[in-house]
Amino acid sequence: MNWNDESDRVVAATADGDDHAVEAALRPKDLGEFVGQERVREQLDLVLRAARARGATADHVLLSGAPGLGKTTLSMIIATEMGAPIRITSGPAIQHAGDLAAILSSLTEGEVLFLDEIHRMSRPAEEMLYMAMEDFRVDVVVGKGPGATAIPLELPPFTLVGATTRAGLLPPPLRDRFGFTGHMEFYAPAELQRVIHRSAGLLDVVIEEEGAAEIAGRSRGTPRIANRLLRRVRDYAQVKADGVITREIAAHALQVYEVDGRGLDRLDRAVLTALLKLFGGGPVGLSTLAVAVGEERETVEEVAEPFLVREGLLARTPRGRIATPAAWEHLGMQPPQQVTRGAGTGAGQGDLFGE
C-alpha cells in the first residue's frame, strides 16, 4: 500500500476518480438540501438572495477548510442559486498569466468561475486576478521587450469562487478582494448521520439508525469519507448479509477495511504504535518516527498527523512528537509509571528531537 498517494486510503479526505463520479450523483443541488455548515450556509444565502434582488452578479466568494467538507459542492450551488453556468479549474492548472487570461476572456456575464486550491496559482496569474476581480478588466501583453504593448481587455461581470485548504498562504491583496469568506468546519456525528441517510436513500441502500451512527463515528468529521465508508459497508452488506446495514454489519465491514472506532486506519495506528512501543510515548523527532513506520517524513506529517493531533492522540512539541494519555488508552496500552524528559527512551537522542 502506497500511503504517499492518500487516495489509496479508505479514510482519505481527497477524492479519486470513483469519488468524483459518485459525488456528482450525491451532491445537494441547492442550499436547502445541503447538510451542515449552518453559519456559512445562512450567510451565503443572504449574499445570494441580495444579489438576485438587485439583479447583480454575486460577490466573489472564498471558501476555506479541509478537503471533503463541501467547498466544490457549495460552488455549484452558488451557480445554481444564481441561475448561472459554472466553469471549474484549479490553481495548479494555471501556471501562466496567459492561462488565466484565456479562461477569463471566455466567461459570459454572471458566470461562476470556481478556482480550486487557489493558493497554488502562479504569482503572475495571481496579480492578473487582482484587476480582474476588482475592475473586471485584464491587461494582455502583446510582444516582448521594449516593443511590448499592454492591451486592456474588458471582462463581463462574473463571480469567482475560490477554494483553499490553506487560507494562510493566500496573500492579503487577494484575500481582501473577496466579498464573502466562509470557513468550513468539520462535521458533528449527528450531521454526518444526516448526510449518510440522505446518501443511502440516493444509493437505494437500506440502513438502520444505529448503522448510520456507526459509520458517522468513524468518518473523521468529513462527509466525503462518510460517503466512501457507506459505499464500502454497502458492498459488505450485499455480499456477507441481506443488504441491510445494521450496527453490527457496519462494525464488521469497517473492521475488514481496518478503520477502527475513532476513524483511525492502519497508517494512523502504525504511527501511534511506533511512538508508544519504540519511543515510550516520546518525544521523538518526525524523521525518526517516519523511519520507524517505514514512510516518508512528508507522509507522516501531512497524511497521518493532522487527524491524530485533532483527535488529541498526538501532540507536537519543540522537542518532538509525544503521545497523549488518550493514545495509550485508545491502543489499550499502559503508559510508563514515570516519564522523565531527556531520560530513558529519549536519552542520548537529542539530535532526533529538535524538529
Automatic annotation (TrEMBL):
Which comment does the entry carry about domains?
A: Has 3 domains, the large (RuvB-L) and small ATPase (RuvB-S) domains and the C-terminal head (RuvB-H) domain. The head domain binds DNA, while the ATPase domains jointly bind ATP, ADP or are empty depending on the state of the subunit in the translocation cycle. During a single DNA translocation step the structure of each domain remains the same, but their relative positions change.
The UniProt keyword set, sorted, is:
ATP-binding, Cytoplasm, DNA damage, DNA recombination, DNA repair, DNA-binding, Helicase, Hydrolase, Nucleotide-binding
* Major subcellular site: cytoplasm
Q: Where does DNA bind?
A: 297, 316, 321
Region span, Large ATPase domain (RuvB-L) = 7-187
Cited Pfam families? AAA_lid_4, RuvB_N, WHD_RuvB
Q: What is its EC number?
A: 3.6.4.-
Query: Compositional bias (Gly residues) spans?
Result: 343-355
Q: Where is this region: Disordered?
A: 332-355
This protein's name: Holliday junction branch migration complex subunit RuvB
Query: Mind telling me which residue stretches traverse the membrane in this protein?
Result: none
Q: What is the lineage of its organism?
A: Bacteria, Bacillati, Actinomycetota, Actinomycetes, Kitasatosporales
Start and end residues of each stretch annotated as Small ATPAse domain (RuvB-S): 188-258
Q: Where in the cell is it found?
A: Cytoplasm
User: GO CC terms for this protein?
Assistant: cytoplasm; Holliday junction resolvase complex
- Keyword DNA-binding appears in the UniProt entry: yes
**GO MF term list:** ATP binding; ATP hydrolysis activity; four-way junction DNA binding; four-way junction helicase activity
Which ranges carry the AAA+ ATPase domain? 57-190
Q: Which reaction is the catalytic activity of this chain?
A: ATP + H2O = ADP + phosphate + H(+)
Q: Where is this region: Head domain (RuvB-H)?
A: 261-355
Q: Does the keyword Protease apply?
A: no
